[in-house]
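Bench notes, afternoon.
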Amino acid sequence: MTTTGRHYLAIPGPSVIPDRVLNAMHRASPDIYSGELHQIVPGIYEDLKKLARTKHHVAIYVANGHGAWEAANTNMFSPGDHALALVTGRFGEGWAQSVEALGVTVDRLDFGKQAAVDPEAVAEALEADTGGRIKVVLMSHVDTTTSVRNDVATVRAALDRVGHPALLAVDCIASLGCDVFEMDLWGVDVMVSASQKGMMTPPGLGFVWMNEKARQASIGSRWRTPYWDWMPRVDPTVFYRLFGGTAPTHHLFGLRAALDMLVREEGVEAAWRRHERLARAVWTAFDTWGEGEGGTRTGIGLNIADPSSRSHAVTTVKFVAPHATKLRKWTQANAGVTLGIGLGMAPDGDPAGDGYLRIAHMGHVNTHMTLGVLGAIEAGMSALDIPHGPDALSRAAAVLAS
């Protein structure tokens, strides 16, 4: 691996941590009973609500994204309940499996690895549930493996059209702060996320937002345990109950700095626009590399064909196997850039998996960082004699200049 310059981790989480966040965390342990920590926490909660575009509730857990799933699960379900999982990649399936592990019966609508959720199929499944057994509809806003972005508002519209009472729960671990998300406007009841992607803070904090409907529905849950119960976290009697015990002190200082940058300075809507522009530049480069010369195709392409269903946080791309794996190894060793593996795009051990990789453009990322990654990829393809079309970098730069 190259040892000069700063290495760039271009994987879809953990994302690049801003120096401001690192510096905020680089301090002695604070008093957990009074003082600065107590002063900054109320503002953190308010900014987390602004980030999710909700006026309702949010709970913070010392956990990763899987912990955020479990926090939501244990408050939403009881043994014997039913759920409907809308699967568009490995993490949609992962959430379904975590629910099943609690003894919940999960019906799946699997839309494959290259397509978004079809709201009409969701409506049909809910209409067929004449007994109202389905308690929660689970979906990913963005599945990090496939890079598909689902239209959450149309799924809510499907529930409303058939008059089904199920809660709508959405995984925004990959998308929050990157892709447009409107919790209240879209009628989302429960949303989960984590600190290590668009929120630009090291892994270790999981978040669950819930509206009043979901909070009331959770009262009868028989899976709630003292730690995962979100009630004390949204309505604490004493400070420590916000976190189920000792506060995650240094993560909170880092999160405060990240929210200053994302919510208070740049602004959520401006961040959405930045991510959209960076994503389009990446798509333009790969479309160009895939064109080849003389009308030939190179085997390089974007996993999601429909631009309206592509994430603005991460892009999954395909090559002729094993070119993707060779390219990832080259950029890491020679260019100081680590690209994401093609997670979940083929069964473990299947050589087809060596034809996929992922590029993150989430969080603390700007124009020169994106162009640098694309330049490293093109250099690697040239070094490895991987066929690719010309002029990709200039076309990507034109997108970023627009």
